[in-house]
Specification:
With 80 residues, the protein is α+β, with helices and mostly antiparallel strands. The protein is 16% helix and 35% strand. The chain has one domain (5-78): Ferrous iron transport protein A (FeoA) (SH3 type barrels, Roll).
Length: 80
């Protein structure tokens, strides 16, 4: 599904996408921006826990684990 806009939490292991601008402000947005998860950043889902929470992503040469509820707040444009 190329070019589709989906929440990061719905991507499966191995899928890639580009982060879209965050719609909500607040502490979560501030924390993600401070960690480098900026709009336009390419990400890859590396792995997910057996029940899907947390999900580990790779971007800019580093890895980050996010709660599924936090990952649901991040929209990505899928390209693989």
């Amino acid at each position: 599904m190329s070019g589709a806009i989906r929440p990061l939490a719905t991507l499966r292991v191995g899928e890639k996408g580009r982060v879209r601008p965050l719609k909500s402000g607040g502490a979560l947005a501030g924390r993600l921006l401070a960690l480098g998860l900026l709009p336009g950043t390419d990400i890859t889902v590396v792995q997910a826990a057996p029940l899907g929470d947390p999900v580990e992503i790779e971007f800019r040469g580093m890895r980050l684990s996010l709660r599924k509820s936090d990952a649901a707040a991040v929209e990505v444009e899928c390209f693989s």
